[in-house]
UniProtKB/TrEMBL annotation:
Keyword Coiled coil: yes
Upper lineage: Eukaryota, Fungi, Dikarya, Ascomycota, Saccharomycotina
Family that this chain belongs to: Belongs to the actin family.
Key words, A-Z: Coiled coil
Coiled coil: 293-321, 421-492
Pfam families found in the cross-reference section: Actin
Protein name per the record: ARP5
């Protein structure tokens, strides 16, 4: 165990809480109830949200039915019928999820057939009955801010002509929610956060000032979609596919509005902050446990012995085959050498004809083949010299070669073959003896060096340590210089790369009159070639081969390996003998990966080290790491940190999400200071609205939303101006509660459009009642 400045056992970090990825549980949603106390003439309130529908009679304190605004069309092949499934019933069967659709495209309705199916579903669960074939209840319905003419026209036609309702009134969900949370005639600033958009509407004495209303094209649906894109970029190889339900739940459960986004973003990846802010989400994963039948020690020993014997047998067979092939190649080489010597008196043309008859293409082909044979024999001899040296002594003592010194003319063919084998054996034995002698000399030198080092340490340890550290510093400096040189080779504009290209150019210009000293020397020795080729002069001089080292990186890489090996040896000595040299002082530790200083690591893996690196350090194989249960679980985890504040921040800085619009706080400041009277005295409109800033809608449930609005608004209000920011009692249901309250008040008496008025004035006719859209043409 290497010494360390750190404690042997570091304090372990507490295990992070793991949250599980939530999806819709198939079959867990109860079917929508049927209302039993239906009454005609009682207004029906329909809050048609793009994500959720809320339907009920206004004589009830709560909506009778709340269900997601989705529909699925299923074809029953056995019954030959097409079934239409709506709302929570879609989640009753897993096969229906793939065909789930919505009638909305953004905030607008695009499939009116689906809307009609869903209205039928709503009225049926309300228990609507009729004796005249008409829907005898007034309808109060929400619509998006700045609803288009075509949308209102088609809805009018559907309700008046298909259902023949007596009268209809449209309004905005955020204004109905404000109406429910006030006395109905209050002044305030309404911030409505919906699934498709966010609106800021000033209200004066219960009437919305629609000419000054503002809309931001960002809501809950865009938020979950943006979060999905962020996670896809963060985890591009995540094994599970995240659907909209996953990301919606992640957004609702873990995102929050930062009170000071820029300051928090600057420190959110600090270890102490990340320890509190990082959320670990585990996706479902099945880890198959492999059950292996363990064998006894006796069986394992038998298998090992069997494998050992089989290996020896195969080695012996392979050795015999190699020896036979070498003998054949030796005979072939000797035959061709003798052929060349016997025909040395012939001209080149005559000798080439003999070679062609022997199966060669030309003289060059013969030369190449002969060189190849010679190279193969030399490699085989060198390989045998590096073989097992344990039997070398026995070989040199017991083996004799009686045929080696006998001339060939005194031997028959079999003895000549045996003589060649004995020559090879003798050469191998002599080579092994030379290697042993060299190793013995090296060991003596090493032992003498170790003795000198030991005596030096015993005499003066401090001096020995100082000298070793100086040597280590020199090696490290040399290593860094070589690394810089290697890096500069990659840059074609660097001096090293330019010199390399110059050397290549000089080599290329040798045949065209280069004036370099090496080129002139090669041209002078043009006739002294290895294979007597006057066109090939390279290699006649040993210095020519240095050109390859100049134009390649191989020499630098080899030198790096040698230096690195020397560094490790010096560090090993220091770790062993120097009491003040620790593992943290080594060159490798100084350049090792520190995950705590890596922003990317903390962003992806959170405030915990990557267990893959720890397993690699323990020596586990890549297959063991890949199949380890902890690694499989880790690969199915998502870390939410920056995304928790980044996604909600788009409401205040839409440019983050790619919108060229102003944020909520900027719009509020513009309305109170410029669009309205800008009077923050007691009787001013801006003063009254600052005292009643009202937030409603699904995004109002985000933690910190109200505090952020209050902080940003106080930033531009005059000192001393009272400010009251409040959230709806129930941001999701208060719109329906406001519709019910409004329907049962005198304010709704003259706010309906009757069927007769629709037929007389047309679908563009609007009755303004202060809680809906207005005609500003």
């Amino acid at each position: 165990m290497l010494p360390s400045k750190r404690e042997s056992k570091e304090e372990k970090l507490p295990q992070q809480e793991v949250h599980y990825l939530k999806d819709i549980q198939i079959g867990s949603n109860k079917p929508e109830p049927f209302y039993q106390n239906y009454q005609p003439q009682v207004p029906i309130a329909l809050d048609l949200g793009t994500s959720t529908w809320r339907v009920g009679l206004t004589n009830s304190p709560e909506p009778n039915n709340v269900f997601p605004g989705i529909i699925s069309r299923h074809r029953d092949r056995r019954a030959l019928k097409t079934l239409t499934i709506i709302g929570n019933d879609v989640y009753a069967d897993a096969s229906l999820k793939s065909t789930t659709k919505t009638p909305f495209d953004g905030p607008l309705i695009t499939n009116w057939d689906y809307i009609e199916f869903m209205l039928d579903y709503s009225f049926e669960h309300l228990g609507v009955t009729s004796n005249n074939g008409k829907l005898n209840n007034p309808i109060i319905m929400t619509e998006p801010i700045t609803c288009t003419y075509h949308q209102r026209k088609t809805m009018y036609e559907l309700l008046f002509e298909a259902y023949q309702v007596p009268k209809i009134s449209f309004g905005l969900d955020s204004l109905f929610s404000f109406y429910y949370n006030t006395n109905g005639h209050s002044t305030g600033l309404v911030i409505g956060t919906g699934n498709e958009s966010t609106s800021i509407i000033p209200v004066i004495e219960g009437k919305a000032l629609m000419t000054q209303a503002k809309r931001i094209d960002w809501g809950g649906d865009q938020s979950q979609s943006y979060l999905s894109k962020l996670l896809s970029l963060k985890y591009p190889y995540f094994p599970n596919k995240l659907n909209s339900t996953h990301t919606t739940n992640l957004f609702q459960d873990f995102c929050y509005v930062s009170e000071d986004y820029n300051r928090e973003l600057k420190h959110i990846l600090d270890m102490d902050v990340l320890e509190k802010k990082d959320i670990v989400v585990q996706a479902p994963v099945d880890i198959a446990v492999k059950v292996e039948n363990k064998k006894t020690e006796e069986e394992l020993a038998k298998q090992a012995e069997k494998r050992k014997e089989q290996g020896k047998r195969l080695q012996k067979q392979a050795q015999q085959k190699r020896l036979e092939k070498l003998v054949e190649k030796q005979e072939e080489w000797e035959y061709y050498v003798k052929l060349k010597e016997d025909n040395s008196h012939l001209s080149a043309t005559e000798f080439e004809e003999i070679l062609i008859k022997a199966g060669f293409e030309d003289a060059d082909d013969f030369k190449k083949y002969l060189v190849s044979l010679e190279r193969t024999l030399k490699r085989a001899a060198a390989a045998q010299q590096q073989g097992d040296g344990e039997d070398a002594n026995a070989d040199s003592e017991t083996m004799t070669w009686p045929l080696v010194d006998i001339p060939d003319d005194q031997l028959n063919e079999e003895q000549i073959k045996e003589k060649r084998k004995q020559k090879l054996h003798k050469a191998n034995v002599e080579a092994r003896e030379r290697n042993r002698e060299l190793k013995r000399q090296e060991e003596e030198i090493k032992a003498r060096y170790e003795k000198e080092q030991q005596e030096w340490r015993e005499r003066d340890l401090d001096d020995w340590c100082t000298a070793k550290k100086v040597n280590l510093a020199e090696l490290i400096s040399k290593l860094k210089n070589r690394q810089k040189l290697l890096e500069s080779m990659k840059d074609r504009k660097s001096a090293a790369a330019q010199q390399r290209m110059k050397n290549i150019a000089e080599l290329a210009n040798d045949e065209t009159g280069s004036t370099s000293a090496a080129s002139r020397k090669r041209r002078r020795n043009a006739n002294a070639t290895i294979d007597n080729d006057p066109n090939d002069t390279f290699g006649t001089n040993d210095d020519d081969w240095n050109a390859y080292r100049e134009i390649s990186n191989q020499s630098v890489e080899e030198e790096l390996e040698i230096i690195n090996k020397s560094i490790l040896e010096v560090e090993e000595d220091l770790l062993k003998y120097d009491p003040n040299f620790y593992h943290e002082d080594t060159f490798a530790a100084a350049n090792s990966f520190d995950w705590k200083s890596s922003v990317l690591h903390k962003f992806i893996h959170g405030p915990r080290p990557n267990i893959t690196i720890a397993m690699q350090a323990d020596g586990l194989s890549p297959d063991e790491i890949a199949n380890h249960p902890d690694i499989i679980k880790k690969n199915h985890q998502i870390h939410l940190n920056v995304e928790r504040i980044r996604v909600p921040e788009i409401l205040f800085q839409p440019s983050i999400g790619g919108l060229d619009q102003a944020g909520i706080s900027e719009i509020i400041g513009d309305l109170l200071r410029r669009r309205l009277d800008g009077n923050f005295q007691l009787a001013g409109q801006s003063y009254a609205m600052a005292q009643n800033v009202f937030i409603t809608g699904g995004l109002a449930l985000l933690p910190g939303f109200r505090n952020r609005i209050e902080r940003d608004t106080r930033g531009f209000l005059p000192i001393g101006t009272p400010l009251n920011v409040r959230t709806a009692k129930d941001p999701l249901l208060d719109a329906w509660h406001g519709m019910s309250k409004w329907a049962n008040s005198e304010d709704s008496k003259d706010a309906y459009v009757t069927r007769a008025e629709f037929e007389e004035y047309g679908p563009e006719y609007i009755k303004e009642h202060g809680l809906g859209n207005a005609c500003i043409l």
